[in-house]
Design brief:
- The protein is α+β, with helices and mostly antiparallel strands.
- It is about 35% helix and about 30% strand.
């Protein structure tokens, strides 16, 4: 059974159409109106071997906040829907990703219980056309809508572009691991019997 989801969300602030397939090859079509955010999402799909598309029309005349936050909400919903009952998945994933000066650790648990641990302040206010503080907002929105316990730790790094990119790629690799099936897991990996 294909693990995939298509989510459409329209508000007065954003109009989002997003597709997400867990078992892909890293193919994506991204257009959010914010170049650097497109770059980050393209890297996420590529390095997680996910397939899909993200099309966003947001109120960028205000700023990028609604576009980035709402994309996080929709992507989180898509991940949750694509994984369904989570039977047979590893549930946990982690990855330590180097990118030039940056070194970022991402660890996550697809527990159904949302939590974000993200303690980092970017040294620059903007990365291209993206307000750097919105990166935390994206991961916060995603973790809560997906029901995911998500930890992102910056262990080293001075260049904002490198740190941000390492975050998205580490997240992709950790999520890919957590989504993988393990033949030893016959139900869900929980003593409670559900995730």
């Amino acid at each position: 059974m294909e693990r995939t989801a298509t989510i459409t969300r329209k508000t007065k602030e954003t109009d989002i159409n997003l597709t997400f397939t867990v078992d892909g090859t890293g193919q994506s079509d991204i257009a959010t109106g914010i170049g650097f955010f497109d770059h980050m999402l393209t890297g996420f799909y590529k390095h997680g071997f996910f397939d899909g598309s993200v099309k966003v029309k947001g109120d960028l005349e205000v700023d990028g906040h609604h576009t980035v936050e709402d994309t996080g909400i929709v992507l989180g919903n898509a991940i949750k829907e694509a994984l369904g009952d989570k039977i047979g998945i590893k549930r946990f994933g982690s990855f330590l990703l180097p990118m030039d000066d940056a070194l970022v650790l991402c660890a996550l648990d697809l527990s159904g219980r949302p939590y974000l641990n993200f303690e980092y302040t970017f040294p620059t206010e903007m990365i291209g056309e993206l307000e750097s503080e919105l990166i935390r907002e994206f991961f916060y929105a995603l973790s809560y809508s997906a029901g995911m316990n998500l930890h992102i730790k910056v262990l080293d790094g001075v260049n904002s572009h490198h740190v941000a990119e390492a975050m998205f790629k580490a997240f992709a690799k950790a999520l890919d691991e957590a989504c993988q099936k393990d033949e030893r897991i016959q139900d869900v990996l929980s003593t409670k019997g559900s995730l």
